[in-house]
Amino acid sequence: MTYRVVAHLQQKAISVSAACRVLQVSRSGYYAHQRAQPGPRHLREQTHVKAVFAASGASYGSRRVMHAVRAQGLRMGRYRVRTLMREAGLHVLWKRKFVATTNSKHALPVAPNVLERRFDVCEPNRAWVSDISYIRTAQGWLYLAVVLELYSRKVIGWCDGTDDARGVSDVSLEHGAATTPSGTGTHFAFGSRQSVCER
User: Fold this and answer.
1) Closest-CA residue to 148 (of 119, 113, 110)
2) Tens-digit pLDDT profile for residues 20-63
3) Secondary structure string (H, E, C) spanning 12-76
């Protein structure tokens, strides 16, 4: 109760030291009580900081959280945001910038590159291009293989999966082969996997 009186007197432009001296309490005890009992302003600010941090997918640091909170109409400085993040145990989850997924050092047979970067094709179903992407998800890696018909720039086959990049590439090629007429020679390159399909 005494510390509430000190806080009330402070709002009336009476210094903390003077109020504590009159009420015979220590300043350190008053400040310790203030830290232990977060007020409504503190709770409101911390709620905003937690919400912004969660919406960012745990990727925002104190500077970006500060800008987002200010955009919501709450005036807070960067160091205040940093303190609230530290109190709440909010730490940025750093993501790896690059993961090498192509293995060029292998003993697998490699077909010659018959396309040789000639991407201007004069007729349909003469050349397909393809690639595999590795997408990091919360459950692990997701492999996505896509086959593109080069003349129309149309996706003619694709497949995704979590188990094996090779299986994904094979299924996407089968989907592409099922949608095109026979009698075409096609070159595929999947990083370490290159093959020629004669139909």
Assistant:
1) 119
2) 787 788 878 777 777 766 778 888 999 999 999 999 888 899 99
3) CCCCHHHHHHHHCCCHHHHHHHHHHCCCHHHHHHHHHHHHHHHHCCCCCCHHHHHHHHHHCCCCC
Secondary element (H or E) of residue 81: helix 78-88
Mean pLDDT, all residues of the chain? 76
Q: Write out the two tokens for 139.
A: 């459950």
Cα 35 from chain centroid? 34
DSSP state of 127: -
Nearest to 2 by CA among 35, 14, 27: 27
What order do you get walking across the sheet with 128-137 strand by strand? 128-137, 140-149, 154-161
Structure tokens at 165: 């990049």
d(CA 34, CA 43): 13
Three-state secondary structure call for residue 184:
coil
Question: How many of the other CB atoms lie within 10 Å of CB of 130?
Answer: 22
CA distance 159 to 168: 6
Q: Which residues contact 122 (CB under 8 A, 6 or more apart)?
A: 151
d(CA 90, CA 95): 16
CA distances, 130 to each of 42, 143, 144, 158, 165 (Å): 54, 13, 11, 9, 13
